[in-house]
Amino acid sequence: MSRLGPYTEKAIAHFRDPHNYGRIKNPDGVGKVGNPVCGDVMHLYIKVGKNKKGKEIVAQVKFETFGCTAAIATSSVITDLAKGKTLEEAVKLDRQDIVSSLGGLPPVKLHCSVLAADALLEAIYDYLGKNKKEIPKDLRLRHARIEREKKEVGKRYKDWVKIEEEFYKE
To answer: First-to-last CA distance in the chain?
Structure first.
């Protein structure tokens, strides 16, 4: 795979023409994550449906990201990876799946793949919680990690958090 500077052609393609960009009206779940160090903010929206076997799937997924090339590319690719997957399959998607799908990322940008995976997890967690459905232990633990990180960010970057909340008021 050829590279354009530090990025692969596939990463640049996702950045220039992101898949599934935008909001879903009345989403079933929303994942909101960010990184105050680099300034990336991701919102990922899902609609849940059922497949032919009656299992819940990510029927529709969209994102809005304020960030760099890698943030937009990873947001785009996580939507491609998640769409049509059962919720159980979707929560197993991780940063390595995202990085592999893009053909790699510069090491300094690997955190963007973590954010994209976390945004999907948070959207699924939000859906399950809103609908009083059982939340698998692994998802609860991962959500707890994300929440701890958000609290730490809140302590360290109070002004940034306030600006981010104002910017993305719904």
So the answer is: 40
Half-sphere exposure of 53 (CA within 13 A, CB side): 6
pLDDT in tens, 53-85: 999 999 999 999 998 999 999 999 999 999 999
Task: Please identify every residue annotated as catalytic.
Answer: 38, 112
Band of residue 127 on the pLDDT scale cut at 50, 70, 90: very high
b/e per residue 18-48 (b: at least 16 CB within 10 A): bbbeeebeebbbbbbbbbbebebbbbbbbbb
User: Domain limits of the chain?
Assistant: 3-164
CATH fold label, 3-164: Sufe protein. Chain: A (3.90.1010)
pTM higher than 0.85, yes or no? Answer: yes
Backbone angles phi, psi at 56, to 5 degrees: -70, 135
Strand partners, 42: 33, 65
- When computed from its CA atoms, the radius of gyration of the chain, rounded to whole angstroms, is 16
- Beta-bridge partners for 49: 57
